[in-house]
Sequence to fold (63 residues):
Amino acid sequence: MIHNGWIDTDLNVKFIESMPDPVGFRRTIGKIRPVGRTGKPEEVASLVVWLASSESSFVTGQV
Fold:
């Protein structure tokens, strides 16, 4: 299972853009992430590809 947090999917982007202050809202949700921003779908896709590859053969779990 991948716990990726807030990802900029079409639905989430539309939700953010519907807020009275989209920039402020994005800044607020970014503060609760260690990297300070929301994620991109391609970042999750890259992680899945890596996890499915032999390069991650020693990964047994992470929280």
